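Dear all,

This email documents one entry for the complex benchmark we are building for the journal club exercise. For each entry we list the sequence lines for every component of the assembly. Then comes the predicted three-dimensional structure of the complex as a token string, followed by one or two observations. Please use this as the template for your own entries, and keep the labels exactly as they appear.
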Amino acid sequence: MPELRKDPVTGRWVIISTDRAKRPNDFVREKVEIRGSGFCPFCYNHESKTPPEIMAYRSDGSAPNTPGWSLRVVPNKFPALRVESSLYRQGEGLFDKMEGFGAHEVIIESPEHSKTMAMLSPRQIEDVLWAFHDRIFDLKKDRRFKYVLIFKNHGEAAGASLEHSHSQLIGLPIIPKRALEEVAGAKEYFEYKDRCIYCDIIQQETETGVRMIAENQAFVAIAPFAPRFPFEMWLLPKGHQSAYEQSLKHEYEQFALILKSMLMRLDHVLEQPAYNFVIHSSPLAEGSNDYYHWHMEIMPKLTKVAGFEWGTGFYINPTPPEEAAKFLREADVPASVVG
Amino acid sequence: MPELRKDPVTGRWVIISTDRAKRPNDFVREKVEIRGSGFCPFCYNHESKTPPEIMAYRSDGSAPNTPGWSLRVVPNKFPALRVESSLYRQGEGLFDKMEGFGAHEVIIESPEHSKTMAMLSPRQIEDVLWAFHDRIFDLKKDRRFKYVLIFKNHGEAAGASLEHSHSQLIGLPIIPKRALEEVAGAKEYFEYKDRCIYCDIIQQETETGVRMIAENQAFVAIAPFAPRFPFEMWLLPKGHQSAYEQSLKHEYEQFALILKSMLMRLDHVLEQPAYNFVIHSSPLAEGSNDYYHWHMEIMPKLTKVAGFEWGTGFYINPTPPEEAAKFLREADVPASVVG
């Protein structure tokens, strides 16, 4: 029997069609494979093919924009927004617009062209997480930024135009609607219960276990109760933490481990699917609060057609999260990757 | 210079990247072509291959579920929701769910397998519009339905699994989030201004003309100010009308004409793209009100990858609506199709 389920934070209803439940093998997938053909601006010795680097991790003292880096952050060559713009706001009759001020950066996760993020070492992934942290702190100094969106498109089907593993960052002078809604929903719950809704979700999911995928000292990975997409996963810090950039060193270590574990599980269960991940965090000005809880949402791109969903704003998910969690929980990952 | 633009109804900001503006030919499209190969359950003499019809237009007095019809409405063979379900609502700890009560119907728009909706006569399209009307009225009798979502997926890339031209209807016991948000935004504007925001938009777009695509006696077709997708189009009745099903006969005639004109323009400018359309209408219980204005949104599926958008909930549109409107306005359509 199909079910209608409501996301407790945003109030979004989704249809979970338990009837025609889809298992991992039922999806027509495009396997993401690193081909390595063609010129790659993200590889060693091609540093001049990107705009000059904003920062890099270099342990060998090498000069900026030369080889020797282990991670590199550069402006997007085709930025959606520009820091050189002003914040000029303008009306156009009843409409509102502003100049496209903002930052659009690319985090090149390692010099190794052939490695996906799932194949990087926990230590390398930790560096990526530190790069996110460092960039948020730097952008935060400029009070014009209200929100930093951190995300990854992995595979062409998920929107990646280059295969060399990278994440992206968009710094915005406005708070995107999705973030506003989540914060508002979490606030409402806090006003009613005096508890963080995500902390309550973590407690319930830990107790029932049906949607739990893995956990380690500091993090849980769950399939959310009302997922929009098959095999959607959320990674949340166990302790209450409202903003990503306020995590502690040991939390980034633990996050790197569980993230690697989840990406390996995805590759294993769904045969190297394309995916997106997005970090959901508090707006910069509300960095430390009691109501919002940062987390990462990972969405494998399994259905070739997302037409219905983006057309109607209404989601039908053919895989119950309890089944998705079971497959992901039972996937074989090395014990060295905690979680 | 890129721009950030705000949708005045929902408050959603989008990035319009005027810098790297994309023209019709810049998109990698999959042209939608009717192949006609394989067995089609929507063709004459295959009536038994669909669930028994809910209604049909038959001018020849032919029996139900036999040939002779000009339009046929059948339950979806693989429904996302079922009318046989109860409305049983249940908590699961802090989560809310209900049984998958609802209707999922398919409107087979004509017996002709080889004709897309754009190729149907205005009269045939009018019949499709009447079928939407008739089905909404019928479902409305059952007070468990709160909202009826009417949409079309045209082409595989937009989610169509069968090529024979059809639309779909999902009757819901809840109001989808997207509809709630639009109604709330329109209400807020009405409380502030005592005017319908869509009526104001129509007036402003008619005066400035830059985003106007076409108009006839009863409808306007515009490119919205803050579109999520390249070449997105909105069709709105000129007179204030809150619910689709409350339109008058002459309005359906005029709507059929402008809809055909818009679909022909799309085919012309973008070379038969896949597209989705969705009718946005008031919730059933608020059928007649001063604040909401029904309309249709048409979204061609031009980018192969919508990954970024559904991942982040944040939209980047590479085609300014003013340019899209210009291309669509100047497209060659026969004078017989008013608008």
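Observations: The helical segments of chain B are 122-140, 177-193, 197-208, 249-270, 307-312, 321-329. The first strand of chain B starts at residue 3 and ends at 6.
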